[in-house]
């Protein structure tokens, strides 16, 4: 993807992120700061072709439903342990995406994030709804001026047996690695953006499976950027919107430098502004370790294209300009 040709959508996305952070600070509500919006902006504005097979009504419905579900689980079932609620949330999102015939994987973050943060305010799902609407309006404007392709959505549903088998495997692997992380308090090993990245990498034709080290690198670097940004706010007292602006620039440089515009990395950066903060480097270290686990699990435990295949067949259609998007 050409940075020069996409500078305006990138700039607009950066302004959106800074405005969201500023609004959160202005009204004193952390629920307004939804980290996954950075990922959605990458997939819906920055990349010329939308990163997910979903139309706008389904995107809004799935994201809002996920946010409401995560909040309701906190309010209605506070005594259910976090690991169990997270597994239920993952299964719920899988069911919703299959019913909708769409692959809006950021829904996983919308549902599981409030569980990790203990969100108990209805401001959260309202904010998710409003933010997604704003992104969709911006997407329409970008389409009309020719800065991105129109959405080519085709409902896709696997046969029931195949869908059940695929999502059961994803759910089991998720539980295998995420439950111990949550149960031991090491939640940064399985923060929602890593779960989104893992789920996307389990798709057999996901092009970034050919370059797993880049998938890990961009997520690990995003963790470092997020750590530096949060540390600047906590220890140096710099304004959050200003720090978010510099963090977004760092993120864009990482995306562009690695030629891997992977949307979940954006959410990794912004999530650092919300998570509990003790040891400043704990977030970066655990995100890097978690990313390695989730990337390796997706490649080792799920069939699909792999680096060895790329070596035998160089120059094929897998060499796409937008790694991190589906083909």
TrEMBL record:
Record bears the keyword Secreted: no
Keywords noted in UniProt: Membrane, Transmembrane, Transmembrane helix
Highest rank taxon of the organism: Bacteria
Transmembrane segments: 7-27, 59-77, 84-102, 122-142, 171-193, 213-230, 242-261, 281-302
Protein's recorded name: HPP family protein
């Amino acid at each position: 993807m050409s940075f020069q040709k996409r500078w305006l959508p990138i700039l607009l996305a950066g302004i959106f992120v800074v405005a969201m952070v500023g609004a959160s600070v202005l009204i004193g509500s952390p629920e307004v700061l939804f980290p996954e919006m950075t990922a959605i902006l990458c997939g819906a504005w920055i990349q010329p072709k939308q990163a997910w097979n979903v139309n706008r009504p389904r995107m809004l419905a799935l994201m809002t439903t996920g946010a409401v579900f995560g909040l309701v689980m906190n309010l209605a079932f506070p005594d259910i342990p976090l690991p169990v609620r997270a597994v239920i949330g993952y299964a719920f999102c899988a069911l919703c995406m299959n019913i909708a015939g769409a692959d809006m994987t950021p829904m996983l973050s919308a549902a599981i994030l409030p569980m990790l943060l203990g969100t108990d305010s209805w401001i959260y799902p309202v904010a998710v709804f409003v933010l997604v609407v704003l992104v969709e309006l911006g997407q329409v404007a970008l389409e009309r001026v020719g800065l991105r392709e129109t959405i080519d959505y085709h409902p896709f549903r696997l046969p029931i047996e195949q869908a059940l088998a695929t999502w059961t495997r994803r759910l089991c692997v998720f539980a295998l690695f995420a439950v111990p992380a949550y149960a031991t308090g090491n939640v940064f090993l399985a923060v929602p953006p890593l779960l989104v990245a893992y789920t996307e990498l389990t798709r057999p034709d996901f092009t970034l499976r050919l370059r797993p080290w880049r998938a890990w690198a961009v997520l690990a670097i995003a963790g470092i950027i997020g750590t530096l940004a949060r540390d600047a706010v906590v220890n140096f007292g710099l304004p959050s919107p200003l720090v978010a602006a510099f963090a977004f620039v760092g993120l864009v440089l990482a995306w562009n430098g690695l030629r891997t515009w992977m949307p979940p990395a954006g959410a990794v950066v912004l999530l650092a502004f919300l998570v509990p903060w003790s040891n400043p480097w704990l977030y970066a270290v655990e995100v890097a370790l978690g990313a390695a686990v989730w990337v390796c699990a997706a490649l080792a435990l799920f069939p699909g294209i792999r680096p060895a295949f790329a070596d035998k067949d160089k120059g094929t259609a897998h060499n796409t300009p937008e790694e991190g998007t589906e083909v």
